[in-house]
Amino acid sequence: MFEKAIKNYLEEKGYNKINLKAVLFDMDGVLFDSMKNHAKAWNKAMSIYGMNLSEEEAFMHEGRTGASTINIVCTRERGYNASEEEIKKIYQTKSEIFNSLPKAEPMPGAYTLLRNIKDSGLQPVLVTGSGQLSLLDNLNHHFPGIFQKEFMVTAFDVKYGKPNPEPYLMGLKKAGIEANEAIVVENAPLGVKAGVAAGIFTIAVNTGPLPDSALLDEGANLLFGSMLELSEKWDSVKNEMCR
Question: CA 243 to CA 229: how far, in whole Å?
Answer without folding.
Answer: 22
